[in-house]
Amino acid sequence: MKNNFKITLPVAIMITLIAVIYQRSTGPTYPKKYQFELGGKSVKIKFPRSQGGSVGAPVEIPLLKENMSAKLFYKRFPTNDSWSEIPFEKQAARLHATLPNQPPAGKLIYYIEGQASGEKFGFASRTKPIVIRYKGNVPTFVLAPHIFFMFLSMLLSVLAALEALKKTRSFFMIGLMTTGCLLVGGMILGPIVQKYAFGVFWAGFPYDWDLTDNKLLISVVAWVLASAVNIKTRRPAAMVAAAVVLMIMYSIPHSTMGSQFNYEKGQVETKTS
Fold first, then answer.
1. Would the pLDDT of 205 be above 90?
2. Beta carbons within 8 Å of 29's beta carbon, 6+ residues apart
3. For the chain, which terminus, N or C, has the lower number of CB atoms within 10 Å?
4. What does the pLDDT read at residue 48?
């Protein structure tokens, strides 16, 4: 059979969409969500855990009562700095404060305390603060194709595995396309994105232990090997195995155990403990 796209393509698209949604909702750099209740009103609120560019990170709270006030407490991480304090300012229907900008991969920890009509509220705490990581500005013309090729590789990987399970003739070519997308999106565009964001092209093995880089490396090696062993003799099991490896790598939340700026040494490194 040449292909089984009527069944495998819709299934591959569905699995990839689930992976996209999962990646967009997990990981240490996606906004921290809270349910904010005050004076009988309830709203959903998000606080930043990532900030790009050369400006500070805005932190905002909906103004549920006219006499609301709050303070933002923060310090550099990981350091022994004392906590700094910023009062929120009223702006239209919200309270607004700005965390100061940091060098690429620099981190701050912060929490919020406030009150309204004697009723206290807060988000996070001194013992369990929110962590925000800063990064340089990544141009859209670099970031957009990087994201496109990475998720296209996921779609093609699943499709290749499903076709391989049916032992169709198309699985080998789809596998080669998967490998190509991983190489372009991950090993070419990925380091460029990393350079713009954190000042280094590569923070994975053998130089450091950035998990995002290392899981990419494992995925690329798996697919290069699977493609290589299928050149002369078709071995569908190898591509199924490579697809499983890629799926496992994608299931690890993005930016986990990522690069961070060491304020004492003045350099970017990876926290492994």
1. no
2. 49, 50, 133, 254, 255, 258
3. C
4. 95
